[in-house]
Amino acid sequence: MNFFEVFELPRRLAIDGDQLQRQFYALARRTHPDFHQAAPPAERAAVEERAALVNAAYRTLRDPVARVDYLVRLEEGRATKEGSEARPQAPPALLAEMFEIQEALAEAKAGALDDAARDGLREQRDRLRERYAAEETRLRGPLAERWDAASAAERPAALAALKEALATRAYLRTVIADLAEALGEEEPGVAHHRH
Amino acid sequence: MSRIIGIDLGTTNSLVAYVEATTGLPQVIPDAEGRRLLPSVVGFTPDGLIVGEAARRQLARRSADTVYSVKRLMGRDYGDLKDELAYLPFHLVPADGTVKLRVGGREVTPAEVSAVVLKALKDRAERHFGEPVDKAVITVPAYFNDAQRQATRDAGRIAGLDVVRIVNEPTAASLAYGLQRLKSGVIAVYDLGGGTFDVSILRVKDGVFEVLATNGDTHLGGDDFDRVLLLWLLEDLQSCHHAELARDGVEVARDPELMQELRLAAEAAKIRLSADERTTLTLPLPGFTYRRDVTRAEVERLIEPLVARTLNPCRRALADAGLTAADIEQVVLVGGSTRVPLVRRRVQELFGRTPHSQLNPDEVVALGAAVQAHILAGGITDMLLLDVTPLSLGIESLGGIVNVLIPRNTTVPTSAREMFTTSVDGQTLVDLHVVQGERELVKDCRSLGRFELRIEPMPAGMPKIEVTFLIDANGILQVQAREQRSGKAASIEVKPTYGLSETEIERMIEDSFTYAEADVETRMLIEARNEADTVLTHAGRALRQGGDLVTSAERAAIETAVAALRAARDSDDRDRIHEATTGVNRATEHLAEVLMDAALKGALGSRRATEILKEPQ
Questions:
Q1: From B616's CA, which of A16, B240, B384, B530 has a CA 20 to 30 Å away?
Q2: Residues of B with CB below 8 A from A22's CB?
Q3: Half-sphere exposure of B163 (CA within 13 A, CB side)
Q4: What is the CATH number of the domain that holds B56?
Q5: Is B489 part of the contact surface with chain A (CB cutoff 8 Å)?
Q6: Is there a contact between B386 and A195 if contact means CB atoms under 8 Å apart?
Q7: Residues of B in contact with A56 (CB under 8 A)
Q8: What is the Cα–Cα distance from B225 to B195, expressed in whole angstroms?
C-alpha cells in the first residue's frame, strides 16, 4: 500500500493540509498501539506495522517537497527501495554555472579567507538562498499544478520537470551548506539533512 | 484489563498515581503517613534495605552506602561518567556494558537500585488498593536514548512490574494538563527536574496530543544547581574559616559526611531562595557552626550558565518543529527546578509568554503517567498521545559514517527497511552496528548494539537480506531480518553495547526476592534505628558544642535520655526505640534552641557559639 492509498488520495500533489491532519488523527486513533493493548501478540505486531506506515505516510505527504520526491520515486517504481538509488544528477547547465563558486570554495578550503573573499562568499550564499527559495516555490506551485492537470500523455514531461527541480534544489542546498561551512557559520536546518 | 499504575521515576523524588474511576481524574497515592513524594534514595544498611525518606535522612551519616540520583547512571557506562565520579560519594566500578555501585558490601546495577524505589511505589499502590498491582506505565526523560529506556524497563521487571509503556515525561505532563486546563493549540513543555532537562513542542487538537519535536539534555538539572552552590560554599568556608578548620583538623572536602551535609544545606538554601530574597545557611561542624547569608542574586549568578544551557535545546526543538517562539500559544512548566525564579524569567523571555504552573510541578508527570495508564487500560478512548523518537537512528557505513535510517522527531511507532548483502563468496555473517545520535561520525554517536545476521553461504552479492528497524511506541528499537530469496527470517544475534542481558535480568529478578524484601515490620524497625542514629549524632554534637550553655541538671537529663536510647537502639522493640528517640528529642529541645539562638546572633563571624554567649548582652 503506498502513502497516497493510506490516505485514500489520488496521486496528486495538491493536498489540503488541514484535511490531511484530520484524517491522520482519525487513522491514528484506529491504528495506534495504545488502543490494541489487549489484542494477541500477532495482531499487535500487525497494528504496530500499520501505525508505522500511517506515520510515515503522514510525515511524507504533509511536506510539499517530500511529497514531490515520494511521487517521483513512486512513479518510477522506486518507492519501496528507499535510499537504494543514486541521487538524480543536477542539470549540466547549473553545474557549469556553479563552477566559479566551486573554485572559490576550493580556494577557501585551501587557505584562510580574507575579508573580501569572505564577503564574496557571503554574497554568493545569499544569492543562492534566494534562488533555492524560488526553486522551491516553483516546485510547489506551477510544477506541482502542471502534474495534477496533466493528461496521461503529458505526465512523463511533467514528471521530468519535477525531477529536475528536485535535483536543482538538492544541489543548491549542498552548495549553500558548503558555503556556510567555509564561512564557519551553521546553516539552520540544512546541515543535518546531508548525511 | 487489570489495573495499571502510573509511575514517575525521578532523579530526586518518585511518585505513583492512578486515575480515580468515579471522577476520572488522576491522583497521587500517598504512603501510610500521607507523604506523596518518595525520595529516590536507597540505603544499604547491615540490617537490609531502606528506601525513601528514611534513606534520605541517613545520606550524610552513611554516604558511601546510600545511593541518590541513580537515574543519572541509568543506561550509561563507566566511560560516560568520568566527569561525575568526583562528585559521587558512592563507589562506582566498571561493568560489562554498564556500571555497578559498590554499596553495603555488594555490587549492584543502577537498574537494581531503581527497582528498589519502584518496588516501594508498587507496595504503596498495593496497600492503597488492597490487591496486587503488577502493571505500570513508567516515565522517562524525553531525551533518554534506547539504552536508558531499556534500563528503566529492566528496573520495572526486577521490581516485579510489567512495564506496559515507557512515556516521555514532558508529554505525560501535557496529558495531565490536557485533561482540564489546556486549550487547543501549540504548546511548549519545559521540564527541568533534578537531573534531566527536556523540552517538547506539541500540537493539541481534538484530543490528540501530537509531539512535533523534542530536545533536551539528560545531564542537566537541579543537582547541578546544588553542585555549583556547594563548590562555592566550600570555597567560602575554607577561605573564611581557614584558621578554625586547621585548629579542629577538619578537611571538609575529604569528609564525605560533611560534604553530604553541605550539599543538603546548599539544596535547602536554594529551595528557600525560590521564595525569599535571602536566607541563612548553617552547617554544624565539629568545633563551630558555619553560617553564611546567601542572597538570591548570588545564587542566580552561579546558576545562570546552567539555566542558559536549557535555552539552546528549546531553540532547536522549535526549529525542528518548523516554528518560532511566537507560534507557541501556551507554555507549561514541569519539574521541581522550574520553581527557581531565574528559570521562570528565562523561559518567559524566550517564549514571550507567562508559563502555566497551576499543577504542582513535582506531581504533574506522575498524574500524566496515570492518564496514559488509563488510556492503555481502555478507560479513556478520546485521548491519544503521538510521541516522537528524540534521537536519529542510524547504522555504521564505510569509513565510520552514520547512515541515518530514522531521523529524530519521527512519530513512533516508525520503521525503516534496509537491504543488505554479502561482499565475499560464502560469507555467512553480516555485522550491523546500530547507533543513535545527531553527529555524522559513528564515534561521536551513541552505540546501541551490534546485530549479527547469520545466513546460508552463497556467492557474494547473492543474499538479499531485508532488515527492519522498528522503534515502538516506547521509543525502544526492535530489529528483524529476513532473507528475501528463502523468505526465511534470518537469525539475529543482538550484542547490546550497553545494558543488561536477559540472563542477568532473570538473575536480578530472583535476587530481588531474597533481598531484605523483609516484611514491613523489619523495614520499620530499620527506619526506627536509623532515626535513632540520626538523633544520637545530633545530640552528641549539641552537647559538645553547647553543653556548657545549659544547667548541669539539664545536661544530666540529656545524658540519661541518650543512654536510654543507646540501649533501646539495639533492641528489636520498635516502640521502645521510638519512645527513647522522642525522649532524647524532648531533652535536647531547649539546648537546640539555645544553640540556634547563638548561631543567629553569631552573625559576628566564626567565633564559637560559647564565646558569643559569654559576652554581656
A1: B240
A2: 206
A3: 26
A4: 3.30.420.40
A5: no
A6: no
A7: 414-415
A8: 10
Contact A195 B402 (CB under 8 A): yes
Domain end position, chosen among B277, B306, B335: B306
Nearest CA in chain A to B382: A29
Which residues of chain A neighbour B401 with C-beta distances below 8 Å? 195
Three-class DSSP category at B388: strand
Look at B376 and A81 and tell me if their CB atoms are within 8 Å.
no
Q: Are residues B375 and B413 in the same domain?
A: no
From the list A51, A189, A195, the residue facing B440 with the nearest CB is: A195
Query: Per the domain annotation, does A7 fall within a domain?
Result: yes
Residue of B nearest to A187 (CA): B319
Residue A69 inside a domain? The answer is no
> Chain B residue with minimal CA distance to A188?
B319
pLDDT tens digits along A101-155: 888 788 777 777 788 888 888 888 899 999 999 999 999 999 999 999 999 999 9
* A192/B164 Cβ within 8 A: no
User: Has residue B297 got a pLDDT over 90?
Assistant: yes
Among A23-37, A130-144, B236-250, B481-495, the minimum mean pLDDT is found in B481-495
Min Cα–Cα distance to chain B from A177, Å: 15
Residue B282 structural domain: 222-306
Whether the predicted pLDDT of A191 surpasses 50: no
Task: Say if B464 falls within a structural domain.
Answer: yes
Q: CB distance A52–B415 less than 8 Å?
A: yes
Phi-psi region of B114 (alpha: psi -120 to 50; beta: other; left: phi over 0): alpha
Residues B47 and B62 in one domain: yes
Window from A28-32, A131-135, B118-122, B448-452 with minimum mean pLDDT: B448-452
pLDDT of B372 strictly over 80: yes
Residue B370 sits in the same domain as residue B418: no
Quick one: B249 and B313 in the same domain? Answer: no
Q: Is the pLDDT of residue B616 over 70?
A: no
Out of A72-86, B183-197, B524-538, least confident range:
A72-86
Residues B183 and B116 in one domain: yes
Q: What cell does B502 get?
A: 536477559
Which phi and psi angles does B145 have, rounded to 5°?
-90, 180
| Cis previous bond, B413, omega within 30 | yes
CATH of the domain at A12: 1.10.287.110
The reply to whether residue B164 touches residue A58, judged by beta carbons under 8 angstroms, is no
- Report the domain count for chain A: 2
CA dihedral B243, B245, B246, B250 (to 10 degrees): 180
Contacting residues of A for B480, CB less than 8 Å apart: none
Which residue among B367, B386, B405 closes a domain? B386
Cell of B231: 563548590
Confidence of residue B615 (pLDDT cuts 50, 70, 90): very low
CA nearest B472 in A: which residue? A48
Size of interface A-B (CB pairs under 8 A): 76
Cα(A29)–Cα(B375) distance, integer angstroms: 12
- List of residues 6+ apart from A146 with CB closer than 8 A: A158, A161
Task: At B453, list the grid cell.
Answer: 545476521
| Candidates B205, B381, B414; nearest CB to A55 | B414
B375 chain-A contacts, CB cut-off 8 A: 34
Q: Is the pLDDT of residue B23 over 70?
A: yes
For residue B603, pLDDT beyond 60: no
Considering its fold, how many domains does chain B have in total? Answer: 4
Distance CA B210, CA B189 (A): 13
Under the banding of pLDDT at 50, 70 and 90, the label for residue B411 is very high
Q: Which residues of B are catalytic?
A: 8, 71, 169, 191
Q: What is the CATH number of the domain that holds B293?
A: 3.90.640.10
Residue B432, H or E segment: strand B429-436
Give yes or no for residue B516 having a pLDDT over 50: no
Tell me which residue has cell 544545606. B265
* Model confidence pLDDT, tens digit, residues B571-601: 888 889 989 999 999 999 888 888 877 766 6
Kindly tell me the burial class for residue B457, based on how many C-beta atoms sit within 10 Å of its own C-beta (0-12, 13-18, 19 or more): exposed
Between chains, do A189 and B319 touch, taking CB under 8 Å as contact?
Answer: yes
